[in-house]
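Hello again,

I reread your note about wanting to compare the complex against the isolated chains. To keep things tidy I'm splitting this into two emails, and this first one only covers the full assembly. Below are the input lines as submitted, including protein chains and any nucleic acid or small-molecule components. They are followed by the predicted structure of everything together. The single-chain runs will come separately.
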Amino acid sequence: MKETPRHLLDLDQFSLIERLTEAGLERFRVDQILGWVYRRRARSFDEMTNLSKTLRLQLAERFDLYTSEIERRQTSTDGTFKLLLRWPDGATSECVMIPQDTRRAVCVSTQVGCPVGCAFCASGLDGLERSLTSGEIVEQAMQTYLQLPEDQPLTHVVFMGIGEPLANYDATVSAVRTLNADWGLNIGARRITISTVGLPRQIRRLAEEGLQVGLAISLHAPNDELRREIIPWAERTSIDDLVEAGRHYFDRTGREVTLEYVLLGELNDRPAHAKQLAAVARGMRCNVNLIRYNGVSDLPYRRPGSEATHAFLEVLRKAGVNAHIRASRGMDIEAACGQLRRQRGDL
Ligand code: SAH
Ligand code: SF4
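Full-complex prediction:
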C-alpha cells in the first residue's frame, strides 16, 4: 500500500482536496488552509484561527506542517544568511538567503550530499546520503521566508544548493510547481532557476513540463577532456549533447540558458579556454555566468585574481558572448557557491 504522506508541504492543491474531502471537509477549507500556510505563513495549525478547534486538532493528527528544526543560523557581513535544518531522520540540509536591493533570493538544496562529486565542490565530497522530498525542498524556502519581516516576501528561488536537482527529478519539479502555483508561494517561473551539472535527457524532459523556469548548465570546461577531469558525470555525456539539449530547452520554453563556468586558477581560466568557451556558447541562445572559485578547505584549487577573471570576460565579450561575473556572497559563513556541505554528528 502506498504510504500516505504526512508532510503537508509535500501535497499539491489537488491531493489536499482529495485527502480532505475524503475526510468530509468542504472544498473552501482547503483554500483557507493553503492561504494560512503560504500567504499568512502560519507555523502551526493552531494559528489557523478561522478554523474550529476540532478541525485544527484533526489536521494536526493527520499532518505535519513543518518537519525540520533550525539547528543553526549564520549571518554574513553582507546580509546573506544560511540555515542548517535537521530533518526527523537526522539528515541535514543547508539553504541560503541572498538579499540584494529589492530582491530576496533563496538557494535551496535538493539532496543530502551529492552523487556527482565534482572535484572543486564541497557538496559532493562525502557522496549522497539521500534525496530530499518535494515537501523538504519547499520547506527550505518556507523556513527562510519565515525568517524575513512580513513586508519582505521571497522574490526568487534558485536550485543551487547541495545536490543535483535533475538526479532528483520528480521532487524537484513538484517543488517548482508548489513554489510557482497561485495557491502556493506564487513566485513566477521566470524567477525560479534550476542549476544542473548537465543531464541531457532530463533537460529535454524539463522542457516539456510547461514551466518557464530558468535553466543553468554547469559547464566549467570548454572541452570534454578537461570537463571529464573535474566532473565525474561528464563521462556520461558530451558538451555537444549539452548544447543540443540547451538549444531544445530554448526552443520549447523561450528561455535563454545560462552556462555556469567556475574559474579555477590556471586550470580553466586561460585566454585559450575563453576562446573555446566562446565557440561553445555561440552554439545556442545563452549567457555565460563566470564564478570565481570559492575556497573549500582540503581542496587544492585556486581562486583566480581579478585580472585573469576580467581578461577571460573580455575574450568572451569580444567574441560576442553575453557574459557576466557572478559576485560571491556569504563567503565568510561558507554560504557561497560550492561551499555548502553535508553536516554530520555534533556541530
Ligand atoms: N548540482 C548542481 C546544483 C548546484 S549549483 C550544479 O552543479 O549545477 C552550485 C553551483 O556552484 C554550480 O554551478 C557549481 O558547479 C558551482 N560550484 C561548485 N563548487 C564551487 C566552488 N568551490 N566555487 C564556486 N562555485 C562552485
Ligand atoms: Fe554536485 Fe553540483 Fe557540487 Fe557537482 S557542483 S558536486 S553536481 S552540487
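For quick reference: The chain has two domains: 6-64, 69-343.

B.
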